[in-house]
Amino acid sequence: MLPRLLLLTLAAALVGAAPHEPADELRAEVQEAQLQYKGAQVLRVEAVSEFQKDVIKKMQDEQVLDTWLNPAAGRTHVDIMVPATALDQVKAELQNVSATFRVMIADVEAAIKDENPALSESELEELEGRKGHRMTFQNYHRVSDIHGYLDYLAQTFPDLVSVQTIGSSVEGRPLKLIKITGAKAGPKPAFYIDGGIHAREWISPASVTYIIQELVENREKYPFADSIDYYIVPVVNPDGYEFTHNGVRLWRKNRKDAQKGRCAGTDLNRNFGYKWGGAGSSRDPCQEIYAGSGPFSEPETQAIRNFVSSLGTTVRGYVTFHSYGQYILYPWGYDKKVPPDYTDLDRIGKKAANKMREVGGASYTVGNSASLLYAASGGADDWAKGGPRVKYTYTIELRDRGRFGFLLPANYILPTGKEALAAIQTISEEIAATG
Fold it and tell me: Mind telling me the catalytic residues?
């Protein structure tokens, strides 16, 4: 019998099938995919030895389970999601290698249902009529609401904001970027920010959109922003993000080849063209860390490369938001090495972590990606540092540390968004001071 995680992958591929297929069939596939989460659990495996990690990796490679959080420096636990039909097998394997574990999420399906109490269409229409847009920070929103909010800001604050499409996704959705112009006269340093590279990390687009709101609608509170031009893409992976709202909540990759078989999608954060295809990535399309057919093989990563490169040497900051784990990471990710200016990155990263704790209460760990977490080649931050040579380059893993994992309830959007903004403020102040 196929493991449920594999069945989920099969169903997911079918959900993305050609539009001429019967709607009833697609609906049935969505329902089948949703059923795969029923009774699934997230386990935290404690004090993991190298041998135990190899056992878990083998089960991950065989798609028996899905690793949510790998061990980091000073922490030896691993978080894994296990489908209901594989629970007995996985728990027996863990016991056979003397691994201690506990349940973090007892029922993934129930956690998904509790995560985002969605607004009704009438509530959204009322909100749009009253405010001119549908965006809130008490709920996770669809791409149309996020993009609609960007358009609203451009229409309402035309001297400050402009919106452009820098490319299209695999399925043809626009990759919308908002530019927030600094009020200071003359050339200004550029700061690129994005979210939503990994589809299931909903807190990322929500937090990035909160940053946008504050830098536009509450601009007077942030004088540092007058000295910087911000370029922000809140949803880099709109196809995958929409797919997670349509029944396959824990989808990670983009939707490349969704109509051609069970192993759809490329991990966009393994697809950037600096040290592409090395440690921490895979050439197997069925793996979650599949790097694609080549560097920048995906339209989403091509769009970011082309746009950031077009800004030239003006780009001084590059931050990409992910979840979860509460980390501020700087290059390199491809190997346990650091760039020559790592002391600056570490200093500002720690300053940002202190500011984040002040405003939101959560503690963030700062360090080099490969040393603190694990090797991951082809990442956006490595490319930004190694390609266009952006000075302040970070990947920030937002809340939490595993109580909810990828299923962070919507009531955490505001505190997490405030933490994300605090990080951007810290880096911005450094850029503004140094030019």
Answer: 397
Residue with tokens 């340093």: 189
Alpha helices in 169-262 (DSSP H): 203-217, 238-245
For residues 214 and 166, the answer to whether their CB atoms sit within 8 Å is no
**Edge-to-edge strand list for the sheet holding 327-330:** 161-168, 174-180, 229-233, 190-195, 315-323, 392-398, 327-330, 365-368
- pLDDT tens digits, 27-56: 544 665 666 799 999 999 997 888 998 999
Contact between 364 and 356 under an 8 Å Cβ cutoff? The reply is yes
- Using an 8 Å Cβ cutoff, are 56 and 15 in contact? no
The mean pLDDT of the chain is: 91
Give residue 331's pLDDT band: very low, low, confident or very high (50, 70, 90). Answer: very high
pLDDT for residue 73: 65
How many C-beta atoms lie closer than 10 Å to residue 66's C-beta?
Answer: 20
Contact 116, 410 (CB under 8 A): yes
Taking the C-alpha atoms of residue 142 and residue 327, their distance in angstroms, rounded to an integer, is: 26
* Residue 406, H or E segment: none
In this structure, the strands spanning 392-398 and 315-323 are parallel
DSSP string covering 78-132, please?
A: EEEEE-GGGHHHHHHHHHHTT-EEEEEES-HHHHHHHH--PPPHHHHHHHHHHHS
Quick: pLDDT tens for 159-174. Answer: 999 999 999 999 999 9
